[in-house]
């Protein structure tokens, strides 16, 4: 193994121990309690962080509210806010090695993947740094004796609740647009992966974001997360996570009818037609399901393969999968790391057992990898003989488990693709441009990739159909989530 040594900055941060960021200050939980953060590659404790709860959320929201009311951020000239956000993006990139190692240790993901994600996190702030100078109102046609115009104003205090699969990137998807449009925010990272969110709060201060504008509270979902979602002084909640928890977030928002955007689960179809470039389709499909150990909301977990090429494709996919190196995140030869926790390990292996019970056949993988110590490793697994009504084809496993479903022709592929409660993403592999457009238009999903899978860009809006959620993050459409429109009437008489 080509193990990478932990750099001093990472060791110092972990030994800290890390603190929450409230009102611009490193903060312990009001209760004084902490909880353990574990390395999924070893199962060992990395560090402890504050166990924030209702009192800490209340303090963070109060800090953000003061920042909103005194306009310490929104009152800055737009060009100055642009400078600060751009600097924050550059600080993230300048600290890529530290952030990537923290992310790899915290989540188990391969270091090379983590480095790419840290670069993307910086790009999100770079993109949003351009927005403060481009938030325009409108003038409205009315009677000759009136003049009417609109203003786009910040929503206020924005809560962000993020998942553990892409901790820093998902944090930037919440914080960057909130700041770009003049809001203050409270960020609650997943309890499994809180470390890079804390560093983001620290880097925001270093970049010049005023104290109290970005607050980070670590804690558990049913404690800190629920308190944030229910808080009556929060104006908006942005949540990324499971559909089950998304329903709870929506219900919790009822107290003050706060705005909510939800990016939830998926069971994305990955459709391979006979005229696809086989080599590219195999590689892309493997990437689509096994990236980040399958812990991706857009994972192409249902691989729909035309019957005329089914056996050839499955054989090539299995062969390529067997060549992937399973190992710890800080081994730079690792292609697929562990799942994030023991709980997730049990969930994924439970679904593998269920798939066998349902009558599907494992052609590669199918077990916990016990030769790698106490880490939470699951062999990349491919099922064939899957029917779309099976639970392994309908429920989000969130692990390295692919369900191959045989289809015949375009119409059946679209029908099977849409036969799910989810609608987050899909991918299509074909050399026929007309077919690609037809399928892309026929699939009910927020993103459709053609001859690729998983590409994202800060300028391209992202979100789901059906029970994959509502609202859009990134791109121009995020303005709707983080601003509100005020109409002003002037009587000219």
Explain this structure.
- The structure is a single chain.
- The protein is of the alpha/beta class and 493 residues long.
- It has 2 domains: 277 residues, Aldehyde Dehydrogenase, Chain A, domain 1 (3-Layer(aba) Sandwich), CATH 3.40.605; 190 residues, Aldehyde Dehydrogenase, Chain A, domain 2, CATH 3.40.309.10.
- The chain contains 16 helices and 22 strands.
- The strands form 6 sheets. Strands 14-15-16-13-12-18-19 form a 7-stranded mixed sheet, sandwiched between helices. Strands 9-8-7-10-11-21 form a 6-stranded mixed sheet, sandwiched between helices. The protein has a 3-stranded antiparallel sheet with strand order 5-6-22.
- Helix 10 links the parallel strand 12 and strand 13.
- Helix 4 crosses helix 5.
- The longest helix is centred in the N-terminal third of the chain and has 18 residues.
- The mean pLDDT is 97.
In short:
The chain has 493 residues and is of the alpha/beta class. The protein has 16 helices and 22 strands.
Percent of residues in helices: 25-40%
User: Nearest-angstrom radius of gyration?
Assistant: 23 Å
Give the name of the CATH architecture of the largest domain: 3-Layer(aba) Sandwich
Oligomer: single chain
Q: Strand order within the widest sheet?
A: 14-15-16-13-12-18-19
Number of helices: 16
Label the overall shape: globular
CATH superfamily of the largest domain: Aldehyde Dehydrogenase, Chain A, domain 1
Number of domains: 2
Query: What is the fold named in CATH at topology level of the largest domain?
Result: Aldehyde Dehydrogenase, Chain A, domain 1
């Amino acid at each position: 193994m080509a193990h990478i040594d932990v750099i001093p900055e990472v060791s110092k941060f972990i030994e800290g121990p890390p603190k929450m960021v409230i009102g611009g200050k490193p903060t312990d939980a009001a209760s004084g309690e902490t909880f353990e953060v574990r390395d999924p590659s070893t199962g060992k404790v990395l560090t402890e962080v504050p166990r924030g709860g209702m009192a800490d959320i209340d303090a963070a929201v109060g800090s953000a509210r003061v920042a909103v009311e005194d306009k310490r951020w929104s009152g800055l000239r737009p060009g100055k806010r642009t400078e600060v956000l751009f600097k924050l993006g550059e600080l993230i990139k300048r600290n890529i090695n530290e952030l990537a190692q923290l992310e790899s240790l915290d989540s188990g993901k391969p270091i090379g993947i983590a480095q790419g994600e840290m670069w993307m996190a910086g790009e999100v702030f770079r993109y949003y740094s351009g927005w403060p100078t481009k938030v325009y109102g409108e003038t409205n046609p009315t009677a000759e004796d009136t003049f009417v115009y609109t203003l786009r104003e910040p929503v206020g205090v924005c809560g962000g609740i993020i998942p553990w699969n892409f901790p820093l990137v998902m944090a930037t998807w919440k914080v960057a647009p909130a700041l770009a449009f003049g809001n203050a925010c409270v960020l609650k990272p997943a309890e499994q992966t809180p470390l890079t969110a804390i560093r983001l709060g620290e880097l925001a201060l270093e970049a010049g974001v005023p104290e109290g504008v970005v607050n980070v509270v670590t804690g558990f979902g049913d404690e800190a997360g629920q308190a944030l979602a229910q808080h009556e002084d929060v104006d908006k909640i942005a949540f990324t996570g499971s559909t089950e928890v998304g329903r709870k977030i929506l219900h919790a928002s009822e107290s003050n009818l706060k705005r909510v955007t939800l990016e939830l689960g998926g069971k994305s179809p990955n459709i391979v037609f006979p005229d696809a470039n086989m080599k590219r389709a195999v590689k892309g499909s493997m990437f689509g399901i096994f990236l980040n150990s399958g812990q991706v909301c857009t994972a192409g977990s249902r691989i729909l393969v035309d019957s005329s090429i089914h056996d050839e494709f499955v054989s090539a996919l299995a062969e390529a999968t067997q060549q992937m190196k399973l190992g710890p995140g800080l081994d730079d030869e690792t292609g697929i790391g562990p799942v994030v926790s023991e709980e997730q390990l049990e969930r994924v292996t439970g679904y593998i057992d269920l798939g066998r019970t349902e009558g599907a056949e494992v052609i590669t993988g199918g077990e916990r990898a016990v030769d790698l110590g106490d880490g939470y490793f699951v062999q990349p697994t491919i099922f064939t003989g899957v029917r779309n009504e099976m639970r392994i084809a309908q429920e989000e496993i969130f692990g390295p488990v692919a369900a191959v479903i045989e289809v015949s022709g375009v119409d059946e592929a679209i029908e099977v693709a849409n036969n799910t409660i989810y609608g987050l993403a899909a991918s299509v592999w074909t050399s026929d441009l007309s077919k690609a457009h037809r399928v892309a238009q026929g699939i009910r999903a927020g993103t459709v990739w053609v001859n690729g899978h998983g590409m994202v860009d800060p300028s391209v809006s992202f979100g789901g159909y059906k029970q994959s959620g509502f609202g859009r993050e990134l791109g121009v459409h995020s303005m709707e989530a983080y601003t509100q429109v005020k109409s002003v009437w002037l009587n000219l008489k």
